[in-house]
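User: I'm putting together notes for a lab meeting next week and I want to include a structural view of one of the chains we've been expressing. I don't have a solved structure, so I'd like a prediction I can at least talk through. The sequence is below, exactly as it appears in our construct file.
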Amino acid sequence: MEVIPAALAGLASGAIMIMVWVRYEAGNGQYHAWGATLVALVMAWAIALVGGRKRGPRLQLLAIGLAAAAMAAGQYLVIRTLIVKAMRDTHGQAQYGWWQAASQLWSTRDALFFIIGLAFAGFVPHRRPAAPQREGLK
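Assistant: Thanks for the context. Below is the predicted structure for the 138-residue chain, given as structure tokens.
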């Protein structure tokens, strides 16, 4: 039960970062895969901060799972937004399917950003040793 607040914090921060990523891509009109890494990094930090000292494999697996789902959802929304932008800019002349647009936008190095994002998600909420107890001033 201690992972539920951390999961909610991860979901909230992931939703905010996906909106930021989609808005940036829509305004820029170009595709950048490093947005997925930022989504995963912010989610991992939110999960680690809310998880507090209750760190360990549960939080790491939670962070990896939520980050992978958020990166996939963000990827879908970014490409869908760029399709709509391309259709609006060409007055409906260009018709793209999602996979067709994705194949034109993706490069081989984009997978590196997703791998780095998942690595951050797995590393940030690692187990920390307990804080030493202090006896105070004598």
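A couple of points you could mention at the meeting. Residues 4-123 form one domain. Residues 20 and 35 are 9 Å apart (CA to CA).

User: Perfect, that's what I needed.
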